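Summary for the steering committee. The consortium agreed at its last meeting that each partner would contribute one worked example illustrating the joint modelling workflow. Our contribution is presented below. We chose a case with several input lines so that the handling of multiple components could be demonstrated. No manual editing was applied between input and output; the record is shown as generated.
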Amino acid sequence: MKNNQGMSIIVKTVTRVSVWLMVLYAWYIILHGHLTPGGGFGGGVIFAIAMLNVLLAYGSEFTEKWLKIRLLHDIEAASILLFLIVGILGISVLGGFLTNFILKGKLYELISAGTIPIFNILIGIKVAMSLFLAVLILAKTNIENGGEV
Amino acid sequence: MMPTEIWLIFIISICIVGSIVALELKDILSSIIAVGVVGLGIAVSFLILQAPDLAVVQFVFEIFAVIILVRAFLKKDYHKEEPSTINKVLVGVTLITLGAIFYLSLSVFKLLPPFGQPLFETAQYYVQNGATDTGAANLVSAIILDYRAYDTLGEVTVLFAAILGTLTILRIKKSKNSQEVTNEK
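What follows is the complete predicted structure of the assembly.
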């Protein structure tokens, strides 16, 4: 992007408020994945769009200071590792990979359904970080200058 | 039952028109918006078919894709006017082939199961025992994260590999550039 400083001050001010509402909505979708439509994938993309909003409004320079690529990649790798660990815990507790080994609880309650909410949260973080990283890297790369970063 | 099908036909015809428009327009921004119309139409058709989970994901992904496309293509000069070459024989052959395929597949539509009555016994088992087996009220979540958790693991792994590849390729280019800079100094 030619202009690294981002958009006008109006867009920046609105973004400062709206990003947190989008993040809240994303977490609502992720945490209620076992009760209402949505879940890890949908909520994760909403989370990524919230961060993309910051990137578009403030420019890539500011965003990289705030959301470091290294940190995002580490979070992403950690979430898939935790997914595997929870899956392997299923082997040791109930004897099957990715088994639902936690007590199921009552139907329609927020804390219920055993491992499903945990998987939803991990997938949500994973999808959000992956999609945002893809956009951030593509935004940094200048294709016209032969892939110069 | 009929209104659902009428709405579906309406939305799918809008999608077909949108995709043809996206192909034929010369202006890149207009054709990106036409692609977005196709995706949103598919999201609405998922809603009408009572698949809100898919609709949420499709809707949000479509917004994401349109943002990326606009960001990637807007500033570049992709407005090249190319003389359209329509081969009339090829168009005729294509139309005849499509018509023949449609005519031959008409009898298959009679064999389709009625709307809302799945063919497989597994689907019926999921509908009847899903809530008690997994404790999740949302049956889609129960299937993708409990019955079919392997598939979800594979999906997440594919995403991970894609991002890993992107990071690796771009980091190699970055280090080459920095080496050139240090050599020049």
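Chain B has a mean pLDDT of 80. Residues 1-76 of chain B form one domain.
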